[in-house]
Amino acid sequence: MEYDVIVVGAGNAAQAAANSARENGAEKVLILEKASEADRGGNTHYSGGLLRIAFDTAEDLRPMVPEADQEITGFFEDVEPYTKDDFWGDLLRVTANKTDRDLATILIDNSYDTIRWMKEYVGIPMEPATSLAGIRVGNRVKWQKGAVIRAEAEGVGLSKHWFLKSESNGIEIRYETGALDLITDQAGTVVGVKAKGPNGIEELRAKAVVLGCGGFEANAQWRAQYLSPPWDHAKVRGTKHNQGDGLRMAFAIGAMPWGQWSGKHSTPISNEWPDFADRKRTDKSNRLSYPYAVMLNRSGLRFCDEGEDMGLYTYAKYGGQILNQPGSMAWQIFDQKTIHLLEPRYKTSDPIQADTLEALLEQLEFDDRAQALRTLEAYNAAAPADGDGRFDPSKKDGVRTAGLSPEKTNWALRLDKPPFVAYSATGGITFTFGGLKVDEHARVIGTDWRPIKGLFTCGEMVGGLFHFNYPGGTGLVSGAVFGRIAGRSAARQL
Ligand SMILES: Cc1cc2nc3c(=O)[nH]c(=O)nc-3n(C[C@H](O)[C@H](O)[C@H](O)COP(=O)(O)OP(=O)(O)OC[C@H]3O[C@@H](n4cnc5c(N)ncnc54)[C@H](O)[C@@H]3O)c2cc1C
After folding, report:
1. 114, 118, 194, 476, best to mutate for ligand 1 pocket (most atoms within 8 Å of CB)
2. Scanning 366, 373, 381, 484, which has the fewest C-beta atoms within 10 Å of its C-beta?
3. CA of 12 to the centre of ligand 1 (A)
4. What are the boundaries of each domain within the chain?
5. What are the pLDDT digits (tens) for 386-417?
6. pTM for the predicted model, two decimal places
């Protein structure tokens, strides 16, 4: 039997491709999922479901979250617009101007429509992302800009609804069936996939193939090779199945690598977490309230400006900075002035507490405990008393240290209100930035700079958008945008 479109992978991007292919006229669509049914859905399942989109007024969000103001007083008055220019500004700033302009244009211009499509065509329920992007001030919520809504029930809900839609859309899904190779004809056109499933190896024919099978974050060898040590030892925040299979298959037929191959998204996570994420606790490993903390490495030294920016603009690079510290770990230390600001996810660890800083440090592993105390004392001496009365967690407040290296440039409150509390952190890898070059139709481009006929890609496999860092909530939107385009292009056999 010949399929119209075979989609490799079953995460957000692949599912967007498969359903878009159906919507655009493809009748026989097959999804290949390497994981078992119990383990399905890739990183999408583990994600926080946060969605960064451009919109001109908060009212534009009403179709996605019609009841938001019933749950949260003043939602549609308090959320600030996030225009395409705002999105551009953030993407350029955090990627040091390296983002691929053509891809970024497609991402930003299609972000709103695509998320609306996910709500209206796919039926994915959405909600305000209060715990991730909102800060309660009195009885109102102050919102970070851009990423204010998410899939209801986060990645678990997102993945579940994608599978429901694929099933109701008549898309065949084969579990425990991993693509091994792409099949090409004499002209070099992709005409199918060689896959290994429960009954062995099979050749599956199709008019077009979409690769949506993730990056190489779960592959220790590729991490060592492209990201360099100590990334081969990093804990993986998501699925164990993203081993770079799709990238390897595409290179084998002449696809072009694109983007920052040494780049990755990684975040501060609990150092107590296992090597691969726990499917039930999904993304609850994150330890992202460090803007209100002082972070110390095992040598007892600070190593970054914890308050450089709002958390969603630094979390994706600070994971790596922690991983590069001695023993690949750090301690986050808080006092009672900010403890109420900790993300709910901290509840998955037992805090270490003490009434004095000395007694707290006694309980923590250090190579140089005396230095740790000196560092905290120097920090307290350099931070303004009571934050000069200007402490404001809802924005960069400019409450900063003076005379430290590195300085803490916002939210620099003294640690002086016991009991003091510590949590461990390490750097967990989320996904890799290096990928394939695609054009505006999501066609994979070969090293001859021409499209490889019959081959499309989307999601983490698209290279070029992210470099060094990443604005929170962009991965899922980029996956859906390019997935939707890839599915449409595959159905039309562009
Ligand atoms: C803990 C965590 C939290 C996150 N939170 C957010 C968030 O809140 N907002 C956001 O925008 N992004 C978030 N992300 C990033 C986001 O999850 C990813 O960018 C996105 O899910 C990638 O989608 P994808 O479809 O490309 O890949 P995935 O969802 O990883 O799907 C890849 C699929 O390919 C399958 N596969 C792999 N190899 C093969 C093969 N050879 N054959 C067949 N199938 C194969 C896998 O099993 C899987 O089904 C988070 C990620 C993690 C890990």
Report:
1. 476
2. 381
3. 7
4. 2-217+433-491, 267-428
5. 999 999 998 999 999 999 999 999 999 999 99
6. 0.92
